[in-house]
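Structure in, sequence out. Go:
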């Protein structure tokens, strides 16, 4: 599955709003979803996972 960011979003080290920001993805970047965690968190990346982002800030 690919997902496109609706606006710049923070990619976090762990699922949840308290995780450290490891990367900022620019608006309209295409991401691949690798897994899902409870609460709407998606593990995303390109060829491999970068980290976690909440599904509410993405367009599928």
């Amino acid at each position: 599955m690919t997902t496109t960011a609706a606006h710049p979003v923070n990619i976090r080290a762990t699922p949840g709003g308290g995780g450290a920001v490891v990367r900022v993805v620019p608006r309209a970047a295409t991401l691949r979803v690798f897994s899902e965690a409870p609460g709407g968190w998606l593990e995303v990346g390109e060829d491999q996972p970068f980290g976690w982002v909440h599904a509410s800030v993405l367009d599928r």
